[in-house]
Amino acid sequence: MSKQVIRNFSAGPAILPPVVFERASEAIRELRKDGHAREADGTGLSILEISHRSADYEAINSGATRLCHEVLGIPETHQVLFLQGGASLQFVTVPMNLRQEGKPACYVDTGNWSEKAIIESRQLGETRVIASSEASKHDHIPELPSPEAYAGASYVHITSNNTVRGTEYAELPALAGDVPLVIDCSSHIGSRPMALSRVGLGYAGAQKNLGPSGVTLVFVRKDLLERAPAGVVPKYLRYATHAKKPSLYNTPNTFGVLVLKLMLEWLRDQGGVAAMGVINQRKAKLLYDVLEDSSLYTPHARPGSRSLMNVTWTLGGVAEGERDAMTKRLVAAAADAGLRNLKGHRTVGGLRASIYNAFPEQGVRELCEFLREFERTA
Ligand SMILES: Cc1ncc(COP(=O)(O)O)c(C=O)c1O
Q: Are residues 244 and 276 in the same domain?
Protein backbone atom coordinates (compact mmCIF):
# COMPACT_ATOMS: atom_id res chain seq x y z
CA MET A 1 0.00 0.00 0.00
CA SER A 2 1.43 3.41 -0.90
CA LYS A 3 2.04 5.84 1.93
CA GLN A 4 -0.58 8.59 2.34
CA VAL A 5 0.65 12.07 1.38
CA ILE A 6 0.32 14.38 4.38
CA ARG A 7 -0.41 18.06 3.77
CA ASN A 8 0.54 20.09 6.82
CA PHE A 9 -1.44 23.34 7.20
CA SER A 10 0.15 24.16 10.58
CA ALA A 11 0.45 27.87 11.45
CA GLY A 12 3.91 27.27 12.92
CA PRO A 13 6.26 25.62 13.37
CA ALA A 14 5.38 24.88 9.79
CA ILE A 15 6.28 22.89 6.75
CA LEU A 16 9.73 23.42 5.18
CA PRO A 17 10.74 22.48 1.60
CA PRO A 18 11.96 18.85 1.21
CA VAL A 19 15.40 20.01 0.05
CA VAL A 20 15.81 22.04 3.26
CA PHE A 21 14.83 19.04 5.41
CA GLU A 22 17.41 16.96 3.51
CA ARG A 23 20.24 19.48 3.72
CA ALA A 24 19.53 20.21 7.40
CA SER A 25 19.59 16.48 8.21
CA GLU A 26 22.83 16.12 6.31
CA ALA A 27 24.37 19.00 8.31
CA ILE A 28 23.43 17.23 11.51
CA ARG A 29 25.38 14.22 10.33
CA GLU A 30 28.23 16.30 8.91
CA LEU A 31 28.52 20.00 8.20
CA ARG A 32 30.21 21.01 4.95
CA LYS A 33 32.88 23.71 4.86
CA ASP A 34 32.08 27.35 4.06
CA GLY A 35 28.83 27.33 5.98
CA HIS A 36 27.47 24.19 4.36
CA ALA A 37 28.21 25.38 0.82
CA ARG A 38 26.77 22.93 -1.72
CA GLU A 39 29.93 21.54 -3.29
CA ALA A 40 32.25 21.96 -0.29
CA ASP A 41 34.06 19.12 1.51
CA GLY A 42 32.83 17.84 4.84
CA THR A 43 34.19 19.29 8.09
CA GLY A 44 34.10 15.94 9.90
CA LEU A 45 31.78 17.51 12.50
CA SER A 46 28.03 17.98 12.97
CA ILE A 47 26.47 21.46 12.96
CA LEU A 48 25.32 20.57 16.47
CA GLU A 49 28.86 20.28 17.84
CA ILE A 50 30.79 23.18 16.29
CA SER A 51 31.65 26.35 18.16
CA HIS A 52 29.78 29.51 17.27
CA ARG A 53 33.23 31.14 17.20
CA SER A 54 34.54 28.77 14.50
CA ALA A 55 35.23 29.86 10.92
CA ASP A 56 32.60 27.39 9.68
CA TYR A 57 29.88 28.96 11.83
CA GLU A 58 31.10 32.43 10.95
CA ALA A 59 30.43 31.53 7.28
CA ILE A 60 26.88 30.47 8.20
CA ASN A 61 26.22 33.61 10.24
CA SER A 62 27.58 36.03 7.65
CA GLY A 63 26.05 34.07 4.74
CA ALA A 64 22.60 34.11 6.36
CA THR A 65 22.94 37.84 7.09
CA ARG A 66 23.90 38.59 3.48
CA LEU A 67 20.94 36.57 2.18
CA CYS A 68 18.57 38.53 4.43
CA HIS A 69 19.65 41.66 2.55
CA GLU A 70 19.80 40.08 -0.89
CA VAL A 71 16.78 37.79 -0.83
CA LEU A 72 14.40 39.42 1.66
CA GLY A 73 15.29 42.94 0.51
CA ILE A 74 16.33 44.27 3.92
CA PRO A 75 18.05 47.58 3.14
CA GLU A 76 21.79 47.99 3.85
CA THR A 77 20.84 50.83 6.21
CA HIS A 78 19.52 48.17 8.60
CA GLN A 79 21.36 45.83 10.96
CA VAL A 80 20.30 42.18 10.70
CA LEU A 81 20.27 40.22 13.96
CA PHE A 82 19.48 36.59 14.78
CA LEU A 83 18.18 36.56 18.34
CA GLN A 84 16.32 34.19 20.65
CA GLY A 85 13.19 34.38 22.78
CA GLY A 86 10.77 34.34 19.84
CA ALA A 87 8.75 37.24 18.51
CA SER A 88 7.26 37.41 22.02
CA LEU A 89 10.52 38.73 23.51
CA GLN A 90 10.44 41.47 20.87
CA PHE A 91 7.09 42.60 22.29
CA VAL A 92 9.22 43.61 25.32
CA THR A 93 12.53 44.64 23.77
CA VAL A 94 11.00 46.94 21.16
CA PRO A 95 9.56 49.35 23.75
CA MET A 96 12.63 48.96 25.96
CA ASN A 97 14.89 50.04 23.11
CA LEU A 98 12.79 52.48 21.11
CA ARG A 99 10.66 54.29 23.66
CA GLN A 100 11.74 57.91 24.27
CA GLU A 101 10.95 60.04 27.28
CA GLY A 102 7.62 61.84 26.92
CA LYS A 103 6.80 60.24 23.58
CA PRO A 104 4.03 57.63 23.58
CA ALA A 105 4.36 54.30 21.81
CA CYS A 106 1.54 53.90 19.26
CA TYR A 107 0.00 50.57 18.25
CA VAL A 108 -2.52 49.31 15.74
CA ASP A 109 -4.63 46.55 17.28
CA THR A 110 -5.35 43.84 14.72
CA GLY A 111 -5.86 40.90 17.07
CA ASN A 112 -4.11 38.44 19.34
CA TRP A 113 -0.45 39.15 18.63
CA SER A 114 -0.74 42.92 18.54
CA GLU A 115 -2.73 42.75 21.81
CA LYS A 116 0.17 40.87 23.42
CA ALA A 117 2.60 43.50 22.15
CA ILE A 118 0.35 46.28 23.53
CA ILE A 119 0.21 44.63 26.97
CA GLU A 120 4.01 44.58 27.20
CA SER A 121 4.33 48.16 26.03
CA ARG A 122 1.81 49.32 28.65
CA GLN A 123 4.03 47.91 31.39
CA LEU A 124 6.77 50.24 30.24
CA GLY A 125 5.00 53.54 29.66
CA GLU A 126 2.37 55.52 27.78
CA THR A 127 0.87 53.42 25.02
CA ARG A 128 -1.79 54.56 22.57
CA VAL A 129 -3.92 52.37 20.37
CA ILE A 130 -4.38 54.57 17.30
CA ALA A 131 -6.50 52.15 15.24
CA SER A 132 -8.28 48.89 15.97
CA SER A 133 -10.37 46.26 14.21
CA GLU A 134 -11.64 44.79 17.49
CA ALA A 135 -15.27 45.88 16.96
CA SER A 136 -15.58 43.55 13.96
CA LYS A 137 -13.62 40.59 15.35
CA HIS A 138 -10.46 41.75 13.63
CA ASP A 139 -11.76 40.95 10.19
CA HIS A 140 -9.83 43.72 8.45
CA ILE A 141 -6.81 45.97 8.59
CA PRO A 142 -8.00 49.33 9.95
CA GLU A 143 -7.06 52.58 8.21
CA LEU A 144 -4.26 54.49 9.88
CA PRO A 145 -5.57 57.76 11.32
CA SER A 146 -4.20 61.08 10.09
CA PRO A 147 -0.59 61.84 11.07
CA GLU A 148 -1.60 64.10 13.99
CA ALA A 149 -2.66 60.92 15.85
CA TYR A 150 0.92 59.65 15.96
CA ALA A 151 2.98 62.84 15.54
CA GLY A 152 5.74 62.89 18.15
CA ALA A 153 5.34 59.20 18.98
CA SER A 154 8.35 57.01 19.85
CA TYR A 155 7.19 54.63 17.09
CA VAL A 156 4.11 53.10 15.48
CA HIS A 157 3.80 49.31 15.77
CA ILE A 158 1.77 47.13 13.43
CA THR A 159 1.38 43.36 13.04
CA SER A 160 1.77 43.21 9.28
CA ASN A 161 0.26 39.72 8.96
CA ASN A 162 -2.19 38.45 11.55
CA THR A 163 -1.66 34.72 11.81
CA VAL A 164 -4.72 34.07 13.97
CA ARG A 165 -7.37 36.16 12.20
CA GLY A 166 -5.94 35.84 8.69
CA THR A 167 -5.57 39.51 7.80
CA GLU A 168 -2.60 41.17 6.14
CA TYR A 169 -1.50 44.66 5.14
CA ALA A 170 -1.64 44.66 1.34
CA GLU A 171 1.08 47.31 1.55
CA LEU A 172 3.20 48.56 4.45
CA PRO A 173 2.13 52.06 5.50
CA ALA A 174 4.41 55.03 4.78
CA LEU A 175 4.32 57.06 7.99
CA ALA A 176 4.46 60.81 7.93
CA GLY A 177 7.37 62.61 9.62
CA ASP A 178 10.26 60.76 11.23
CA VAL A 179 8.26 58.36 13.41
CA PRO A 180 9.74 54.84 12.97
CA LEU A 181 7.41 52.10 11.77
CA VAL A 182 7.83 48.82 13.68
CA ILE A 183 6.45 45.64 12.10
CA ASP A 184 5.85 42.19 13.49
CA CYS A 185 6.19 40.34 10.18
CA SER A 186 6.57 36.86 11.72
CA SER A 187 4.05 35.13 9.51
CA HIS A 188 4.67 36.68 6.10
CA ILE A 189 8.29 37.79 5.81
CA GLY A 190 9.69 36.54 2.50
CA SER A 191 6.25 35.82 1.05
CA ARG A 192 6.26 38.70 -1.47
CA PRO A 193 8.10 41.98 -2.13
CA MET A 194 7.64 44.47 0.70
CA ALA A 195 8.64 48.12 1.06
CA LEU A 196 11.06 47.41 3.92
CA SER A 197 12.75 50.78 3.50
CA ARG A 198 9.62 52.18 5.24
CA VAL A 199 10.44 50.13 8.32
CA GLY A 200 12.47 51.34 11.30
CA LEU A 201 12.49 47.92 12.96
CA GLY A 202 11.07 44.58 11.88
CA TYR A 203 10.98 41.24 13.66
CA ALA A 204 9.90 37.72 12.84
CA GLY A 205 9.96 34.40 14.63
CA ALA A 206 11.56 32.08 12.06
CA GLN A 207 9.16 29.17 12.42
CA LYS A 208 6.94 29.96 9.42
CA ASN A 209 8.81 31.14 6.31
CA LEU A 210 12.35 31.13 7.69
CA GLY A 211 13.00 27.78 9.34
CA PRO A 212 12.61 26.27 12.80
CA SER A 213 11.51 27.90 16.04
CA GLY A 214 14.19 29.31 18.30
CA VAL A 215 15.57 32.00 15.99
CA THR A 216 14.11 35.49 15.69
CA LEU A 217 15.10 37.68 12.81
CA VAL A 218 15.34 41.35 13.78
CA PHE A 219 16.28 44.12 11.37
CA VAL A 220 16.74 47.59 12.74
CA ARG A 221 17.75 50.84 11.11
CA LYS A 222 21.27 51.55 12.32
CA ASP A 223 20.44 55.02 13.67
CA LEU A 224 17.92 53.40 16.05
CA LEU A 225 20.39 50.92 17.56
CA GLU A 226 21.62 53.24 20.29
CA ARG A 227 18.24 54.69 21.29
CA ALA A 228 17.96 52.57 24.45
CA PRO A 229 19.10 54.59 27.44
CA ALA A 230 22.45 53.12 28.60
CA GLY A 231 22.39 51.90 32.18
CA VAL A 232 18.60 51.58 32.15
CA VAL A 233 18.06 48.74 29.70
CA PRO A 234 19.99 45.57 30.66
CA LYS A 235 22.93 44.93 28.35
CA TYR A 236 21.57 41.68 26.95
CA LEU A 237 18.30 43.34 25.95
CA ARG A 238 19.90 46.22 24.01
CA TYR A 239 19.99 45.79 20.23
CA ALA A 240 23.34 47.61 20.21
CA THR A 241 24.90 44.79 22.24
CA HIS A 242 23.97 42.20 19.61
CA ALA A 243 24.93 44.50 16.73
CA LYS A 244 28.47 45.05 18.03
CA LYS A 245 29.32 41.35 17.67
CA PRO A 246 26.76 40.60 15.00
CA SER A 247 24.47 37.95 16.50
CA LEU A 248 27.41 36.44 18.42
CA TYR A 249 27.20 38.19 21.78
CA ASN A 250 26.20 34.89 23.35
CA THR A 251 25.74 31.40 21.94
CA PRO A 252 23.15 31.67 19.17
CA ASN A 253 20.82 28.94 17.92
CA THR A 254 23.48 27.71 15.50
CA PHE A 255 21.34 24.99 13.94
CA GLY A 256 18.39 27.38 13.55
CA VAL A 257 20.54 29.97 11.79
CA LEU A 258 21.86 27.30 9.43
CA VAL A 259 18.30 26.24 8.54
CA LEU A 260 17.34 29.90 8.05
CA LYS A 261 20.26 30.19 5.61
CA LEU A 262 19.11 27.06 3.76
CA MET A 263 15.57 28.49 3.58
CA LEU A 264 16.84 31.74 2.07
CA GLU A 265 18.95 29.84 -0.48
CA TRP A 266 15.84 27.87 -1.41
CA LEU A 267 13.81 31.08 -1.70
CA ARG A 268 16.53 32.62 -3.91
CA ASP A 269 16.48 29.49 -6.11
CA GLN A 270 12.68 29.82 -6.54
CA GLY A 271 13.20 33.29 -8.01
CA GLY A 272 13.15 35.26 -4.75
CA VAL A 273 10.29 37.19 -3.19
CA ALA A 274 8.98 38.49 -6.54
CA ALA A 275 8.41 34.99 -7.92
CA MET A 276 7.19 33.74 -4.55
CA GLY A 277 4.65 36.57 -4.37
CA VAL A 278 3.12 35.46 -7.68
CA ILE A 279 2.90 31.84 -6.49
CA ASN A 280 1.43 32.88 -3.13
CA GLN A 281 -1.21 35.07 -4.80
CA ARG A 282 -2.21 32.13 -6.96
CA LYS A 283 -2.34 29.65 -4.07
CA ALA A 284 -4.43 31.93 -1.86
CA LYS A 285 -6.84 32.81 -4.70
CA LEU A 286 -7.62 29.13 -5.28
CA LEU A 287 -8.77 28.80 -1.70
CA TYR A 288 -10.56 32.14 -1.33
CA ASP A 289 -12.45 31.42 -4.58
CA VAL A 290 -13.78 28.15 -3.13
CA LEU A 291 -14.85 29.93 0.07
CA GLU A 292 -16.51 32.76 -1.87
CA ASP A 293 -18.40 30.36 -4.15
CA SER A 294 -19.79 28.38 -1.25
CA SER A 295 -22.99 28.71 0.73
CA LEU A 296 -21.47 26.70 3.61
CA TYR A 297 -18.14 28.50 4.13
CA THR A 298 -17.69 32.15 5.13
CA PRO A 299 -14.23 33.69 4.86
CA HIS A 300 -13.39 35.62 8.04
CA ALA A 301 -11.27 38.41 6.53
CA ARG A 302 -12.75 41.10 4.32
CA PRO A 303 -11.54 41.46 0.73
CA GLY A 304 -8.60 43.86 0.63
CA SER A 305 -7.34 42.65 4.03
CA ARG A 306 -6.99 38.93 3.27
CA SER A 307 -3.80 37.16 4.19
CA LEU A 308 -1.97 35.17 1.53
CA MET A 309 -0.42 33.05 4.28
CA ASN A 310 -3.22 32.26 6.75
CA VAL A 311 -6.65 31.72 5.24
CA THR A 312 -9.40 31.71 7.90
CA TRP A 313 -13.05 30.85 7.58
CA THR A 314 -16.09 29.55 9.46
CA LEU A 315 -19.05 27.37 8.63
CA GLY A 316 -21.29 30.40 8.37
CA GLY A 317 -23.89 28.51 6.36
CA VAL A 318 -25.07 26.27 9.23
CA ALA A 319 -27.08 27.13 12.32
CA GLU A 320 -24.92 28.32 15.23
CA GLY A 321 -25.91 25.35 17.38
CA GLU A 322 -24.54 22.89 14.84
CA ARG A 323 -21.49 24.84 13.78
CA ASP A 324 -18.95 23.55 16.31
CA ALA A 325 -19.86 19.93 15.79
CA MET A 326 -19.71 20.24 12.02
CA THR A 327 -16.39 22.11 12.21
CA LYS A 328 -14.99 19.22 14.29
CA ARG A 329 -16.31 16.76 11.72
CA LEU A 330 -14.65 18.67 8.91
CA VAL A 331 -11.29 18.84 10.72
CA ALA A 332 -11.42 15.11 11.46
CA ALA A 333 -12.46 14.12 7.92
CA ALA A 334 -9.73 16.33 6.46
CA ALA A 335 -7.13 14.76 8.76
CA ASP A 336 -8.23 11.31 7.59
CA ALA A 337 -7.68 12.47 4.03
CA GLY A 338 -4.14 13.61 4.97
CA LEU A 339 -5.04 17.32 5.27
CA ARG A 340 -3.74 18.10 8.75
CA ASN A 341 -3.98 21.02 11.17
CA LEU A 342 -6.96 22.90 9.78
CA LYS A 343 -8.42 23.78 13.16
CA GLY A 344 -8.54 27.52 13.80
CA HIS A 345 -6.50 29.07 16.62
CA ARG A 346 -7.78 27.94 20.02
CA THR A 347 -8.83 31.47 20.99
CA VAL A 348 -11.06 32.10 17.95
CA GLY A 349 -12.20 28.69 16.67
CA GLY A 350 -13.28 28.17 13.07
CA LEU A 351 -10.88 26.91 10.44
CA ARG A 352 -7.50 28.05 9.22
CA ALA A 353 -5.21 26.89 6.44
CA SER A 354 -1.67 28.21 6.71
CA ILE A 355 -0.08 28.09 3.29
CA TYR A 356 3.41 29.48 3.78
CA ASN A 357 6.08 29.64 1.06
CA ALA A 358 6.99 25.96 1.35
CA PHE A 359 3.39 24.76 1.11
CA PRO A 360 2.87 23.24 -2.37
CA GLU A 361 0.18 24.49 -4.73
CA GLN A 362 -0.93 20.90 -5.27
CA GLY A 363 -1.75 20.67 -1.55
CA VAL A 364 -3.97 23.76 -1.85
CA ARG A 365 -5.78 22.17 -4.81
CA GLU A 366 -6.36 19.03 -2.74
CA LEU A 367 -7.85 21.12 0.07
CA CYS A 368 -10.12 22.95 -2.40
CA GLU A 369 -11.34 19.66 -3.75
CA PHE A 370 -11.92 18.30 -0.25
CA LEU A 371 -13.88 21.40 0.78
CA ARG A 372 -16.13 21.23 -2.29
CA GLU A 373 -16.80 17.57 -1.68
CA PHE A 374 -17.47 18.12 2.04
CA GLU A 375 -20.01 20.79 1.20
CA ARG A 376 -21.66 18.61 -1.44
CA THR A 377 -22.16 15.75 1.01
CA ALA A 378 -22.73 17.74 4.21
C1 LIG B 1 2.39 37.44 14.12
C2 LIG B 1 2.97 36.70 15.28
N3 LIG B 1 3.63 37.39 16.25
C4 LIG B 1 4.17 36.76 17.30
C5 LIG B 1 4.08 35.41 17.46
C6 LIG B 1 4.71 34.77 18.66
O7 LIG B 1 5.87 34.16 18.26
P8 LIG B 1 6.81 33.33 19.24
O9 LIG B 1 6.05 32.12 19.64
O10 LIG B 1 8.00 33.06 18.38
O11 LIG B 1 7.14 34.19 20.40
C12 LIG B 1 3.44 34.65 16.48
C13 LIG B 1 3.33 33.18 16.63
O14 LIG B 1 2.70 32.50 15.88
C15 LIG B 1 2.86 35.31 15.38
O16 LIG B 1 2.22 34.62 14.43
A: no
Per residue in 192-202, pLDDT (tens digit) is: 999 999 999 99
Instruction: Calculate how far, in angstroms, residue 210's C-alpha sits from the geometric centre of ligand 1.
Output: 13
The verdict on 309 and 263 lying in the same domain is no
pTM (whole model) above 0.90: yes
- Per-residue model confidence (pLDDT) at position 140: 98
Domain of 307, CATH number, reads 3.90.1150.10
- Dump pLDDT digits (tens) for 281-302: 999 999 999 999 999 999 999 9
Residues 197 and 232 in one domain: yes
Measure 195 CA to ligand 1 centroid, in angstroms.
21
In this structure, are residues 367 and 354 in contact, taking their beta carbons and an 8 Å threshold? no
From residue 126, how far is each of 157, 185, 268 by CA, in Å?
14, 24, 42
Contact present, 301 and 165 (Cβ < 8 Å): yes
11 CA closest ligand 1 atom index: 14
pLDDT reported for residue 1:
67
Domains identified in the chain, total number: 2
pLDDT in tens, 173-196: 999 999 999 999 999 999 999 999
For the chain, strand residue ranges (E) read 7-8, 78-83, 105-109, 127-132, 155-159, 161-162, 167-168, 181-184, 201-205, 216-221, 298-299, 310-314, 339-340, 351-354
Q: Are residues 195 and 248 in the same domain?
A: yes
Q: Does one domain contain both 98 and 218?
A: yes
- Catalytic entry in 109, 139, 184, 313: 184
